[in-house]
Design goal:
By secondary structure, this protein is of the alpha/beta class. It is built from eight helices and six strands. Strands 3-2-1-4-5-6 form a six-stranded parallel beta sheet, with helices on both faces. Strand 4 (65-68), helix 3 and strand 5 form a beta-alpha-beta unit.
Length: 197
């Protein structure tokens, strides 16, 4: 039995991933805003710190896998900065900071991008660059300027590019850790239902 961390584990793709892993006999440490082993807001530095500390404690210092499903959709009344904080920085910060726990047993990590990165026009390039440059304050400002509808694919492009940059490095594959991103299409989840309201 392995130990896996799933963010966004209380609903949608995260909940389905958790269920599948548990049916296979794996132990899952869920991270979400509610109904999980670790209740933390990954859109804040404090929430990310809490999540990392609790994963370290609950896992005993080693994990076999990490799936970063936590994310928000773009809505007309939702600040773009919130998507930047959760979708991009909440993902890459956990990937980077939990990497040493994956290295103990040569685990694997999967980040969730989106097929919107290839289908939505007008993605703000400045926002993508601010994300991958790691400047959260600048990226949050750019997200608010762009609005959350445009920020969604920008944050998901950022995740995909972060993965491409890091996966072939000595710290990841060189340490025996597989890092990949997947880009699901629209999936009937609570996040999509929220966008229909």
């Amino acid at each position: 039995m392995g130990t896996f961390v799933v963010t966004g584990s209380a609903s949608g793709i995260g909940a389905a991933t958790r269920e599948r892993l548990e049916k296979q006999g794996e132990r899952v440490i869920g991270v979400d805003l509610h109904r999980s082993e670790i209740v933390a807001d990954l859109g804040t530095p404090q929430g990310r710190d809490l999540a990392v500390e609790r994963v370290q404690a609950l896992s005993g210092g080693a994990i076999d896998g990490l799936v970063t499903c936590a994310g928000l959709c773009g809505l007309p009344d939702r600040p773009g900065s919130r998507l930047v904080a959760v979708n991009y920085f909440g993902t890459v910060d956990l990937l980077a900071r939990l990497r040493p726990l994956l290295a103990v047993r040569g685990g694997a990590a999967v980040a969730i991008s989106s097929n919107s990165v290839t289908t939505q026009p007008g993605v703000p390039r400045a926002l993508v660059l601010a994300c991958i440059d790691g400047d959260e304050a600048l990226a949050r400002r750019a997200g608010d300027e762009a609005g959350s509808i445009a920020a969604y694919p920008a944050t998901k492009i950022g995740v995909a590019r972060w993965v491409r940059r890091h996966a072939p490095t000595p710290e990841w594959i060189g340490a025996g850790i597989t890092l990949n991103a997947i880009a699901p299409g629209m999936t009937d989840t609570a996040m999509i239902a929220e966008g229909r309201r």
